[in-house]
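One-letter codes give the sequence; the fold follows as tokens. Both lines appear below.
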Amino acid sequence: MVMVLDMDGVIVDSNPLHTQAWMLYNRRFGIDAGETLADRMYGRRNDEIVREFFGPGLSPEQVAAHGAAKEQLYRELLAPRLPEALVPGVREFLQRHAGQPVGLATNAEPANVDFVLDRGGLRAYFRVVVDGHQVRNPKPHPEIYLRAAELLSAAPRNCIVFEDSFSGIAAARAAGARIVGLTTTHRELPGADLAIGDFRSPQLEIWLRAQVPDAS
């Protein structure tokens, strides 16, 4: 069984802190996204979010600088909370499936990926890690999941993707994977084959055992 996990909202329930970090960072520049902030950032790559808030006319260097500064603020907020911010049951789930081909595919910045995997003691569970800088097209384009499947030597149709965002589910569906949706970010996840609150769900292992590789 080949599994590919997203990070934000799947491994770590970080979206509230990302929202807080963007709110605090944007205020430095007099930007108030109000109630639309979360909808404008969830499931998107950092360069897209920066241009959403600061306008499309920024140079690549300006985009990178804004993104790096915001992510540094996010990591400062997350650092003292990381253990309790991990999605319940995720460490035990990864331990149960240690030795199986498991990958990480996320739009997140590489520094954030390193922070969560290394500070959280989770890196050893992942054979491959694909972040948003390793693909040309971010989610909802399927490229990141196709790349993860390729690196895991698996057909995308035989991969089980764990996602929490609409754009992530769209990417996994377009890649041809089966999808477990985590309702950490949205209560309803259209397109998911199974929806669970967290990795402690008794349905999860039952559903996984029922998945048969497609040899066609």
About this structure: The chain has a mean pLDDT of 94. The chain has two domains: 2-13+84-209, 15-80. Strands lie at 2-5, 102-105, 128-130, 159-163, 178-182, 194-196. The radius of gyration is 17 Å.
